[in-house]
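Lecture 7 notes: from sequence to structure.
We start with the chain below.
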Amino acid sequence: MTLKIFSHHISWVYLLLFVTELLIFFSSMFFADRIRFMFSPNWYTQEYRLFTSMFFAVMLSCAAFGLGLYRRSLSWSERGLLTRVVISFVAALGLVSFFLLLIPNFTISKGVLAIALSSAFLGMICTRFLFYKLTKHNIFIKNILVIGGGKAAQKIIDSNAGYIHRGFQVLGCIVFPGEQVIIKPSLIMDNSKSILELITQYRIDEIVITIDDRRGILPIKDLLDCKMVGVTISDLRSFYEREKALIYLENLIPSWFVFSEGFANGGTLVVLKRFFDLLASLILLLITWPVMLLTILAIALESGFDAPVFYRQTRVGENDKYFDVIKFRSMRVDAEKNGAQWAEEADDRITRVGRFIRKYRIDELPQILNVLKGEMSFVGPRPERPEFVKQFNQSIPFYNERHRVKPGITGWAQLCYPYGSNEYDALQKLQYDLYYIKNISIFLDLTIIIHTVEIILWGKGSR
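Predicted structure tokens for the same chain:
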């Protein structure tokens, strides 16, 4: 189940987990000084205790959020859940130390900080243990009845397999005569019963309609009865947008865009987003300039001081305007002597330094200049090369709609889908790009930026 905050769908279960752990972090610092100064004078005032506790809780929560610990698509197969927790605490300690150095007259006793970190870590481990134990049972999971038994129905059934918390489970499907059935026979519901009887028997929370040709097939009266007793009725696209944070493209028609809510990219949002871009870019530049200097030196030492350090490449921007994206050069100088091509898994054109900076997205840092010039946004669909855009415009429906907004250094598709190197991958990533364009907001931008920390640390989606 999800909540909609600034048009973005958030799992209320993970939101509850976030708030619970935020309170644990706050309490850990709030009582730490009383433990530390139990037998000695305590100089902490109530106001200072409240300030440091909130500061400590926010730092820890942001670090955990950035490491993907509140991501609803977090799966059991994601490597190192405990490692993520440990790294989040190390990152939070780094953030706390940075602000202690930055802000005059702001100090936290080392003993108090050690006690707060220890109790917060123990509290988070206990909370996570309880949370993961509960998720193994079908607690807080919606029961879904699917209308249809074809490919779309099977895709819903498979869509959240392996997640730590599955937001829903498909209890069964209603199939119709002549329909191509792909689902397992055990999931086919008894057609002799009305839908209202089925939802009562199986305690159904939502009905999802997956069949495209509904004329003369859908039992409208039965569905109306279900609607009137409080059961949610969703079409396939609404369901995917809410549960998977993407726009399902199969059999999508233009009128859906016309009558759908969202896609409000104008007015005050443009001004706020530009201010946000400038602020975020300047902060990133302030933080990463030492890394950029070291990267320049490393590229020069590997390839020679006569070889170019930066790489300019033509990309397609907002409203199909061309611009030159700036990156650190990660391939040989003659890498594209045979024309434009995708980067492969073990591409021999990539240099040793290039492989490292691509893995941790350091090669993207010079694009800060593109943002400052107004050619790119900090967050948005990744800009693509004209050669590939021309190809995808012909083969992928609505591909050009991703150029309605400025491209970004990072984006929703980069968080939700691995590196793409073919047309199929481009189609999958487009579904996430369209979700971002439909639900664009400063809140979503901030969410993406924080989550990008996970992408950088784990080297996800790089090639």
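Points to note: The chain is about 50% helix and 10% strand. The CA atoms of residues 249 and 431 lie 7 Å apart.
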